[in-house]
Amino acid sequence: MAFAFTVIFVNNIFFHGIFGGSSLLIISGGNTKKRYIGGFCLSITWMMTASTVLTYYTDMILSVTGLSEYLRIPVYAAVLGGIYILTLVILSGIMSARFDNIKKYIHTAAFNSAVFGCMLTAASIGNITNGIEISFFTYLLYGILSGIGFSLAVCIHAAVSKLFHGEHMPASFKGYPASLIFLGFMGMAFYGI
Amino acid sequence: MSKSLETLKKGLLTKNPLFCSGLVLSAAVFTSDSLKTALGAALCFTIITAFTALAVYFLPLVKTPYTVRIILYILIASCVYVPASMLSSAIFPAETPKIIVYLACICVNSLILERFDKRTLKKKSQKLLFIIASVVGFDVALIIFSIIREIIAYGSVYGKLVGLDTPLPIFGYVFGGLILLGLFSGLFRYIIMISGVTER
After folding, report:
1. Confidence (pTM)
2. First and final CA of chain B: distance in angstroms?
3. Does the residue B200 lie in any domain?
4. How far apart are CA B79 and CA B63, in angstroms?
């Protein structure tokens, strides 16, 4: 319970680490339909879970091979690409009628610093090469909870983002600058936890 | 105005990745609390994005499906990351380990994902010019922002005190960086608007 609270609120992947800022602004920036935001949140939670689970196995293999820390990044990128293709194949099979509509949100959910940062953070907290044994279950839980934490940030921003495009907003602050200031104050509130 | 000049203006000013479009936000906000870390991030970002753009320019990817193309971009960027991060570690040995996760995240930066497939730019050379202008625009914006943020937050520039009596360390935090970037972005857009570079 304490782990869940920490990952979702105290160390929220967006408000604490600012991972995935651009994707958050693109998805919840005002023009996206609400149902797509829900789909995006599910997609990114899936991507984070799958990527952290595969990070567990990737790290185990890499620790045996003794590969340099720098060379881990191309391996993680290849893993992410594999998950992306797998997700598209599964979705084209089960949601073929709506596949074209949801396809564009899948790549936003797959390739962003939130998912990549989640992989790297999971790898750093459970670095097997440092002799700290972190269980598979912890990796899995970390991925799910990080996804929920990021989805929370997306939902908070999506709930108010229309206000930032209103008539009352000064022209130069419309949209992006107002969103940043709002997210900054939300980050301050999360920091207070 | 010629097409090339228009493209340059877009990348540097009206569609500046940091102040106008919100691209590469995570690396920019996290690394801009001091000039040293910002320079490390700018160096990595420039090498990764520029070399990936050049590789994409010379590869025959026109008929390749987007799904495959996007994975190729990320793989090329992650391979370029290896020498880029080594160079950053050699130049900024104390600062690079603090920001290494964010440097790795540059491989999946939104500028690569969003601007490499700009449909409004038909010619490959125009796309390359737009990306180069965007990279320069991002670097200049990040360095200026980090200098001002370091002065406001810690009263120093490049680690040397500049005599500011009342620094505001709150702007050294991630949330402070977001607020300050929001204010800067609004100010930048206001200047662009009143200077007549773009219409309201």
Report:
1. 0.91
2. 19
3. no
4. 23
Chain B from 116 to 155: CB within 8 A of any A CB: none
Q: For residue A126, what are the domain limits?
A: 21-186
Q: Is residue A122 part of a domain?
A: yes
User: Which of B24, B67, B77 comes nearest A22 by C-beta?
Assistant: B24
ipTM: 0.91
Domains contained in chain B, number: 1
> Mean pLDDT, consecutive 10-residue segments, chain A of 193 residues?
84 88 83 78 92 88 75 91 91 80 81 90 68 75 93 92 88 92 94 84
Structural domain for B154, as ranges? 3-194
Contact assessment for residue B81 and residue B92, using Cβ atoms and an 8 Å cutoff: no
- Residue at A13 is within a domain: no
Q: Do the chains contact at A120 and B101, CB–CB below 8 Å?
A: yes
Q: Which residues pair with B156 in a beta bridge?
A: B161
Choose among B71, B164, B51: nearest CA to A76.
B71
Distances (CA, A) of B195 to A184, B134, B183, B192: 28, 20, 18, 5
The whole-angstrom separation of Cα A23 and Cα B25 is 9
Give chain A's domain count.
1
